[in-house]
Each structure stands twice: as structure tokens, then as C-alpha cells.
Design brief:
With 707 residues, the protein is an alpha+beta fold. The chain folds into six domains: 13-77, Helix Hairpins; 96-325, D-amino Acid Aminotransferase, Chain A, domain 1, CATH 3.30.470.30; 330-425, OB fold (Dihydrolipoamide Acetyltransferase, E2P), CATH 2.40.50; 466-531, 5' to 3' exonuclease, C-terminal subdomain (DNA polymerase, domain 1); 535-621, 5' to 3' exonuclease, C-terminal subdomain (DNA polymerase, domain 1); 637-704, BRCT domain (Rossmann fold), CATH 3.40.50.10190. Helix content is 36%, strand content 20%. It has 26 helices and 24 strands. α24 (649-658) links the parallel β21 and β22 (662-664).
Length: 707
Amino acid sequence: MSGEEIDVAHLTEAQARAELARLAQVLTEADAAYHTHDAPVMSDAAYDALKARNAAIEARFPALKRPDSPSGRVGAPPADGFAKLRHKVRMLSLANAFEDREIIEFDARIRRYLGLPETAPLVYTAEPKIDGLSLSLRYEAGRLVQAATRGDGEVGENVTANARTIADIPERLDGAPEVLEIRGEVYMSHADFEVLNARQAARGEKSFANPRNAAAGSLRQLDPAVTAERPLRFFAYGWGEVSAPLADTQMGAIARLAALGFPTNPLTTLCDGPDALLAQYREIEQARATLGYDIDGVVYKVNDLALQARLGFRATTPRWAIAHKFPAELAWTRLEAIDIQVGRTGALSPVARLRPVTVGGVVVRSATLHNEDYIAGRSATGEPIREGRDIRVGDWVQVYRAGDVIPKVADVDLGRRPADAVPFVFPDKCPECGSDAVREPGDSVRRCVGGLICPAQAVERLRHFVSRPAFDIEGLGAKQIEAFYRDGWIREPADIFTLEARFGEGLQQLRNREGWGDKSAKNLFEAIDQKRTIPFARLLCALGIRHVGEQASSLIARHYGTWEAFVAAMDAARDPNSPEWKDLLAIDGVGEVMATSLVRTMTEPHERASIERLTAHLTILPAERADTARSPIAGKTLVFTGTLERMTRAEAKTRAEALGAKVAGSVSARTDLVIAGPGAGSKAKKAAELGIEVIDEDAWLALIGAP
């Protein structure tokens, strides 16, 4: 490997996007030089190092994978990129688990949500997790009409012509629903991969690194004739839009797909509870080397499709499924230094600088050390970890890649500890600005109190501001933010929206920077202008308020509706006895820690002034509302109390919010309706005192039209 090798464990999302953009450009030029012009501009080793770097970043940030990603391209493209197709039903990713206890917790979480006792039967399917490329196939009237890659989950690449060349994918179906979207994985067997690479070598063409990359690159060939030459295979494992149900169970639906002519994985089986799931996991793990294709874990799904529907989805993952990944590879190497990085909230994060070591096919140079307790060999509660062994500079440490992606230090070999190694002293001063670094009671992290004067916090906050869940400004990534901050061009978010005015029409300052010209500067300013109109939730998320992430931002935005209402409420909530403070705490999902952080940030004079300078340049869209025109509870504030018998409180909350209602945790004068089950106490009593309508669970279900 070359100097292009990097550790991706500590890249921010904005940094990752900038790196992927650069790598896409460099590798596209290298491909064209190598394949089209027969004039290579770099050695194979340097090329492979760049590809490995790109793959490592994409593995950690799969949502950032670009349409022109080098990992999805073999050779130089003969034409422009694929057309885009919007999925009728989103192609979501799966939550990951790495330890047995997480599977037990997964089962317990589902039971709590559904209100099922531990002794009640709950059947799952277990199937190998194929290491390939996800594909969606749409059939209408039994005919294949389109095929699309996952893309970002909502929009994928149109690879219909390529999919038609795969023998495992039927052109026509007999007895299928009028509309049927099949979800599955395109992969390449080990034997076919070896044959393909031998053929590549015989032709004097570049070999592929592994079956997964070969499959992805082959499917994404813009010339279908090239795809047709590649030995691609397909396993069907699910579905998207269907005009009629396939079956009542996951297993029944998989059998139906097989009957329609799709290959399905023969190792898919039914398991009754977490013990059976873990036993099947062990069996598949033992058989992994003999399967003839790559897998990286086992996927568990609730078998009953009616229960899947009740469980529904989180923002990006289904509640009813999880991927149990295989253990990470381990390696031993020397810890050469411990650096301290400062994040946007002031958190001091220790990073292990390692003698380079290969772990899972990737060269690792650094790894996370979590926090000062982890280095000292104790948990946040003071209990020993690693049997109390601390970590010191000079130690030989065991490194693993969590989920085969993020490097972490697992253990230390005391037998190889140098005689002069000393315990690591965690700093109590910020290494960036010299301010005190304090650790509040109950917090596992030490934080710089420098705030706006700390350059590390300022840069990290700006990186977060332009990240994907926030403003997501094309062309303004981590490197640009760092450079602009260093030169004094951007010090706070508002400065982004005055860049063009400060540079003027000539763009001379920006044009004179390396890598910039009139066109790139013009593109940047246009991208910034496009983000002058922003949804309320994305703005709130972009501010980087501690304890307030993407999900909480959406929750708060839905509650207040408009930015103006939110700001007014935060101003009033400074008084802990005010109705606004109590209303904030009543939002289901907002606790006192988050509420305090919100109010403190929005009312601190310097922070507020910075936010107002920003919003002066923005049009802030109200929170999106569900289509609840016929909902009897749209816009109302509900409180659930007591024990619900036909659905859990979590499920009731989800149903209510889907119908446009707000769910609060306490009763106030703003409450419109209280749903009281057996055991309802003070909340029902307070509702009666305030004259608020109280109904039982049967009336609630009748009100929302539930069976």
C-alpha cells in the first residue's frame, strides 16, 4: 500500500464526502488513462491503494456512496451515467448487531413493543446475509419492466438492461400479482470469480479484488454486453410494492418467490426465539467457508407479516429485522502514540496511533480508544474492563474492526509492555485552545469549555452544519470548510451565505485558490443558494445542539410546527415554572437533559446572535405534516396513561403520530384527549380536574378506525 492508505475511523461525514469526491475524480482519470488511452498515470499498487481507500470510506459511510463511485465501475465508462429510478417503497438498510446479547435485546425490544410476554411464541426467519449488491426488480402483469440498485434507498440507478442478462432473473412470471417488486442480492460465486479473473488475466486486463466488487462493477457496466459476459447470480429475499399479498408469513412469501422462479437461499430457516437464532448463527458461521459465495452475517426477521406491519420502521431501518454480523478480524500491533481530538461539542476523544497493520484486508494506522476510562481499564461506573489492564504508549494492543469497518482497540499484552511505559494522563486542558476540559458528573466524556473560542469546535460544528442530514451543500465539504476557516472566510454558518457577496462578481479570491476556477466557484454559490430554503427540522439538526440529533430534531419540529413558534417557546422556557418549559418536557422523547441543552443554546446571547445572523439569510419551511385530512386526531395533543391491553404504549404512540397527533408525556391545559387503560392514576385524575375528555382503549381504537 502507498501513502494514500488512511484510517477512516475518525472521518466526519463531511470529510468522507469530500474524500469520495476527490477519489472519484482521480480514479476516473486513472481508468480513462489505463483502459481508454493505454497510458497509465499510476502504478497498480497506487491504484489499488486508492481503491482500498475509497472502499473503506464507503463501508463506513454507505449512504455517501456516489453514483460515479469507483467501487461500482470497472474500466472507463463508455457513456454517461445511468438514469435514476425512484423506488415506490424505500429500500432500507438493516440495523447491525455484533454480540449475542444484542440479539436477546432485539427479541426483548420487539416483545415490549408488541406487548408480548417472554413465554409467548415469537417465530423468526434466519438467512445468510449475502455480501453482494442490492437490486430491486419490478414486474407488471408478469413482465420485468425495470431494475434498480438501492442507491440512497429512495432513488437508485436504472440497470434494467443489465439485469435482463442475469440468468437467475426471470423475464416473465406466471401467477404473480399484477405489480410485484422483488428485492434481492446480486453476487458472484467463488468459482465464477476465479474463472473471471483468469479470463481477465488471459486478456491482459485488470483483475478484480474480490467477488463483491466484481459483482457490483459488472452490474453497473453501462454496456449491457459487458455485464452479459460476467457470471452474475441472484438471490431473492424480500419485496417492495405488491398489488396483492404474497403470503401471511415471511417464510411463506419466500416460498412463493421460489415458486415464481426466483432463486432463494436454501439455508433460510424458521427459529423460535433468540436461542434458536443464535444456534442457527453458529451453524451458518461454521459452514461459511464451504458455501461457495461470500456472506458477512445472518439476517433475522419476524416471520409473521402482520406483526411486521405493526412494528413498522424507524427512520432508516425496520424494527422487525436485524443483521447479526460475523466477528471482526483481530490483529496485534504497537501503540505508538495517543492523540486527543476535539469534536464539535467539545468532547475530547482519544485516538490510538498504531504501527500499520492489516485487519480484514485494510491497513489500519489508528483506532478509537473511546474515553479516558477505557484507557484506564475501567468502565464509566468504575468497574474493571480487560481485567483492569490499562493502555499505555508503547504497548502491544489487539485491534479489531467493528462491523469490519471502524478500528478499535480490544486488549493489551502486558507480557510485551516496555519497562519504561507509564500510565497515560488524560489532559484537563483543551489541546486546541487551552481552555479547561471538564468532566461533568455522570458524563463519560471530558469536554472543552472554550465554546466559540475553540477552533476545533468551530470547525467541527461547521463540518456538521454542511453534513448530509443538515444543509448538505454540494461542493462544500470538510476540506473546503477547513481551508475557508483557516483563511478567515467562514467563521460561523452565516458566513457561508455571504460568501458570494463578499467575493463579488469577479470571484478573484476564490478563483485564485488551488483547484478553483470561475465554474467551480459559480457552482458552489449556486449550491449555497439552493439551500437558502431549508426545512425546520434540518436547520435544527444543523445547529449541532448537544443531545439533539436528527431524530430529535424531527420530533421537536413536528411539535412546534414553525421555527418562529419554536424560538418563542425557547425564550419563554427559560423560566422553569413556565407552561412552555412544561410543554417542552411533555414532548414524548424529550427529557430534562435535552430540554436544558435546547433552551441553554437558544437563549445564550452569543449562540443566539450567531443563529439569528444565520436565519436572516434563510427561508425556513414549516415541519412536514402527514396527510391527515381525514384523521380525527390530526393536530391534537394526546396523552396515554395506564395499561393498554390491545397494543403497547409505543405502538399507540406510533399510530397516533402517523395520524397527525402530538403525543405528550403529561397532562396540561393544552391536552386535547387522554386515553386511559386499567391502572390509570394521577394523569386521568388531572384530566378530569381540567375538564379534558378521557376515553378508554376500545373508544380509542374505534376513533382511529383500528380493528
